[in-house]
């Protein structure tokens, strides 16, 4: 246990190892560790960003969905409206058609009635003459009694 | 025990002597009776020869194991650093990074200046001192006996724990001390450094009083300054030396019969487990104190 040259030898060895560690070991290891730290920090940041993006996209999708829904509702409403309008129109047209057909029929009926009446009228005067002839036993001069016959027919 | 004919005292003494290679002066009478004809560098055969070599003596075992363990540390870390990737780390890299992270955090907690040397020095000290201390856990006779067998010299001195040699611990401590003074002067200038030594802790601000205070301050501060490396080195040495001593004492018991031998085995196991804590703590303490001293050297406005 003497203090001797070993002390200086150990000092030199110590300095040598410290310098080696300082030059070749420490910076390399530390730079690697720092690089990883940055990598991880960046990764975490990206993940957070992605999370936010996802949230935003979800919101956007929700908004789009609501919009589409309301649009669809509007469309359906419009279609319903249009359909009822068409139905109404068709109803009105049908009614008008019916009215027209009814009117036409009425007119036809009227025409036929008046025609029948006219026919009847003609026939009545002939019948009246024939009846009168039979009663009188002689022919009635139609021309002589035309005025009376017309009057009779007009009364029918 | 190393050999059966040794007395316990001789056994202990043998275990406490380093493998010394040094200069014997001309005319020195060696242990075997031969007289050295001229100055010669040689291995010491006895403790007396080693101490008679004086300053010009190298402890080959201390330096050798120090270099071997330091090289293991350096190469292992260097290889890992070269292969390290910023991606997912593998097992070895994770372990190394854990250590680096630990040292970095510890150093950053005490040392708040820009210096590229302090953190790597902390890592080197922690791992290297830990490895040197770890040699203490190798049963005390294994490596010395192996070395004696390999060299063919039964009386070869061989201490495998460099930190039980005060030369090793004080060598590191005085290097730290030299760095302290270097950084102090670099940071504050020679004048600033002298002011720190002379104007603290007593300072009145009046020149005619300060003149009397300066010598007192200088003595106090110098003692405080010099005691730092001495305590740093001796603390580590003392802890390791005491631990080693107990291992040696336990080892003596192995030669004292079967029952005591088994008891010694249990004791050795217990002490080794406890020692795992000690060697780690001592390595950590050495590192932290070094960092603290470096921080002190960098602090410009020191308030007492």
* Biggest interface pair, counts: A-B, 31 and 54 residues
> What is the assembly state of the chains in this entry?
heterodimer
Mean pLDDT of chain A: 89
Residue fraction in strands of chain B: under 5%
Structural class of chain B: mainly alpha
User: Over all CA atoms, what is the radius of gyration of chain B?
Assistant: 24 Å
Rg of chain A: 61 Å
Distance between the termini of chain B: 54 Å
Provide the β-strand percentage band of chain A. under 5%
Shape of chain B: globular
Shape of chain A: rod-shaped
What is the chain-wise order of helices and strands of chain B? HEEHEHHHHHHH
Order of helices and strands of chain A: HH
Low-confidence parts of chain A, pLDDT < 50 over ≥5 residues?
Answer: none
Mean pLDDT of chain B: 89
- Describe the main β-sheet of chain A briefly: none
Secondary structure: number of strands of chain B: 3
- Strand order, main sheet of chain B: write it out: 2-1-3
Descriptive notes:
The complex is a heterodimer of chains A (156) and B (304). Helices cover 90% and strands 0% of the residues of chain A. Chain A has helices at residues 6-136, 146-155. Chain A is rod-shaped. The mean pLDDT of chain A is 89. In chain B, helix 7 (166-198) packs parallel to helix 9 (258-298) and helix 8 (207-253) packs antiparallel against helix 9. By secondary structure, chain B is mostly helical. Helix content of chain B is 68%, strand content 4%. Chain B has helices at residues 8-15, 47-52, 60-83, 91-110, 118-134, 142-151, 166-198, 207-253, 258-298; strands at residues 20-24, 40-43, 57-59. In chain B, strands 2-1-3 form a 3-stranded antiparallel beta sheet. Chains A and B meet through helix 1 of A and strand 3, helix 3, helix 4, helix 5 and helix 7 of B.
């Amino acid at each position: 246990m003497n203090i001797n040259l070993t002390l200086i030898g150990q000092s030199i060895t110590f300095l040598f190892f410290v310098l080696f560690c300082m030059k070749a070991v420490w910076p390399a290891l530390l730079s690697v560790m720092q690089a990883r730290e940055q990598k991880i920090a960046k990764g975490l940041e990206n993940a957070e960003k992605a999370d936010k993006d996802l949230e935003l996209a979800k919101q956007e999708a929700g908004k789009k969905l609501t919009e589409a829904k309301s649009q669809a509702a509007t469309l359906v409403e419009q279609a319903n409206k249009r359909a009822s309008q068409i139905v109404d129109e068709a109803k009105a047209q049908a009614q008008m058609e019916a009215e027209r057909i009814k009117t036409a029929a009425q007119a036809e009926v009227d025409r036929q009635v008046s025609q029948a009446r006219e026919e009847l009228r003609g026939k009545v005067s002939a019948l009246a003459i024939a009846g009168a002839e039979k009663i009188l036993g002689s022919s009635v001069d139609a021309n002589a009694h035309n005025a009376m016959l017309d009057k009779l027919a007009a009364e029918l | 025990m190393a050999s059966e004919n040794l007395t316990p005292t001789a056994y202990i003494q043998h275990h406490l002597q380093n493998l010394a290679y040094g200069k014997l002066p001309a005319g020195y009478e060696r242990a075997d009776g031969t007289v050295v004809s001229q100055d010669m560098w040689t291995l010491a055969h006895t403790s007396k020869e080693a101490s008679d070599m004086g300053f010009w003596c190298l402890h080959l075992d201390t330096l050798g194991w120090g270099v071997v363990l330091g090289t293991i540390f350096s190469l292992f870390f260097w290889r890992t650093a070269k292969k390290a990737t910023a991606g997912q780390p593998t097992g070895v890299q994770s372990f190394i990074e854990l250590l680096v992270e630990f040292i970095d955090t510890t150093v950053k907690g005490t040392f708040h200046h820009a210096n590229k040397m302090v953190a790597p020095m902390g890592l080197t000290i922690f791992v290297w001192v830990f490895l040197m201390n770890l040699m203490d856990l190798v049963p005390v006779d294994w490596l010395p006996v192996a070395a004696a067998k390999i060299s063919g010299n039964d009386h070869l001195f061989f201490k495998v724990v460099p930190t039980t040699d005060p030369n090793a611990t004080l060598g590191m401590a005085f290097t730290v001390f030299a760095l302290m003074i270097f950084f102090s002067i670099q940071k504050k200038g020679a004048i600033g450094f002298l002011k720190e030594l002379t104007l603290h802790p007593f300072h009145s601000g009046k020149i005619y009083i300060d003149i009397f205070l300066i010598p007192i301050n200088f003595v106090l501060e110098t003692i405080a300054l010099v005691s730092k490396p001495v305590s740093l080195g001796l603390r580590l040495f003392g802890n390791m030396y005491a631990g080693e001593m107990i291992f040696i004492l336990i080892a003596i018991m192995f030669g004292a019969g079967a029952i005591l031998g088994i008891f010694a085995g249990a004791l050795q196991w217990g002490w080794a487990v406890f020692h795992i804590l000690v060697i780690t703590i001592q390595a950590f303490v050495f590192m932290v104190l070094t960092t603290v001293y470096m921080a002190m050297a960098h602090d410009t406005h020191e308030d007492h």
